[in-house]
Amino acid sequence: MISFFLIFSFFLQVSSYANSIECWSDSSKSCLLSGSLELHTYPGRPNYQDIKKGDEAETGLYLKLDQPIIIYFKDWIDKKEVPANEKISLMQIAGDFDDKFFRIAEKKNHVSIHSPVFESQTGHHHTHFLIDANNNIVVDKK
Q1: Fewest CB atoms less than 10 Å from the CB: which of 40, 95, 105, 106?
Q2: Is the peptide bond before 116 cis (omega within 30 degrees of 0)?
Q3: pTM of the model as a whole
Q4: Is residue 7 situated within a structural domain?
């Protein structure tokens, strides 16, 4: 009976990954991602832990993906692309943006972004993977 549940859970996990989009954390490759543009606020300097305890509020642009994605990142030890151990559904968007993108996010408009993806590198990065968009955001027609 235990083996049945183990096999069932394995196939359930495999099928959930099969329904995901694949993307690579490699600056030479871009991904086409779509979803709702949103504003999120997270704690910033000095401790990156709690706004109520004095950390600065960092409000930024985030893409809530229509469909979760699997990000492949470079395993520098084995020199191959390997999947991250999670499906990604929210990604921070890095870059300098015009005010219009913040207005778009307030309305939670649906957008498409064709952009490289990279791994978080600093305390200012609040998701494991980020999109490097730099105003390369297209608002989808309704």
Answers
A1: 106
A2: no
A3: 0.73
A4: no
Tokens of 140: 């989808």
Contact 117, 131 (CB under 8 A): yes
2 within domain boundaries: no
Q: Per the domain annotation, does 56 fall within a domain? A: yes
Q: Which domain holds residue 86?
A: 21-139
Structurally, the chain folds into a number of domains equal to: 1
Q: 79: domain CATH number?
A: 2.40.50
Q: Which residues pair with 137 in a beta bridge?
A: 113
CB 92 within 8 A of CB 132: no
CA dihedral 27, 80, 13, 37 (to 10 degrees): 0
Q: What pLDDT band is residue 22 in, cutting at 50, 70 and 90?
A: low
Cα-only R_g, the chain: 17
What are 43-86's pLDDT values in tens digits? 999 998 999 999 999 998 899 999 988 887 665 555 555 556 67
DSSP secondary structure, 31-77, as one string: EEEEEEEEEEEEE-TTTSS-GGGTPPEEEEEEEEEEEEEEEEEEETT
Give per-residue pLDDT as tens, 78-118.
555 555 667 889 999 987 777 777 887 888 788 988 888 88
